[in-house]
Design a protein that fits this description.
Layout (H helix, E strand, L loop, with lengths): L2 E6 L2 E9 L6 E5 L6 H16 L11 H15 L2 H19 L9 H12 L7 H20 L26 H8 L1
Antiparallel strand pairs: 1-2, 2-3
Helix pairs in contact: 2-3, 3-5
């Protein structure tokens, strides 16, 4: 397993051709840019260690929408028949409105945080239950991506959904109850 270190402008990158554990075919793994060659070497060593112990994510061009479809297929086997029809589908639609065409490798904690913020800033406020359900579904989809070795880690892990204020309940007065009860 040979690793090349290349200088691209002012940055150093590493590149390796390693057998894909699933298909057995050689696959191109490459890094982002590093300011020094030493940092690129350190990152390459960490990648190689992860590759050898089987925890390196496979390079993929899968979008969030495609990952969501796979998650739904897997989820249908786990959920009660009635739940499996509605829960994943509702969550898929909501999540795909924001993440749909994004490559899963490009989903970062800051993107997840921005999504959570957008839930609270909608024209029609969502209930805390809806926000929590969407956050759970997002974490579940990304966790599934980690389990399938498509992601190295779950970018939604450790990011808390926003808290919402409980709706103010204004009970009817005795007069209102009597008037509307007729």
């Amino acid at each position: 397993m040979k690793i090349q270190y290349l200088k691209r402008g002012k940055l150093w990158i590493w590149r390796a051709y390693l057998p894909n554990p699933v298909t057995g075919q050689k696959q191109d793994y490459k890094s982002k840019g590093f300011p020094t060659k030493k940092e690129a070497q350190t990152d390459a060593e960490a990648m190689l260690k992860n590759y050898l112990n089987g925890s390196l994510a496979l390079p993929t061009k899968m979008t969030f929408e495609e990952l969501c479809e796979e998650w739904i297929r897997a989820k249908r086997n786990e959920l009660h028949k009635r739940s499996s029809v509605y829960y994943p589908e509702d969550q898929r639609k909501a999540l795909n409105n924001y993440f749909g065409k994004v490559l899963i490798k490009d989903i970062s904690p800051i993107l997840v945080q921005n999504y959570y913020s957008s839930l609270k800033e909608q024209d029609r406020p969502l209930s805390s239950g809806t926000i929590n359900n969407r956050a759970k579904a997002l974490k579940s989809v990304l966790k599934f991506g980690v389990q399938m070795r498509l992601l190295n880690n779950n970018p939604a892990e450790g990011i808390k959904p926003p808290k919402t204020h409980k709706k103010q309940i204004n009970p009817w007065t005795k007069e209102e109850f009597i008037v509307t009860g007729k």
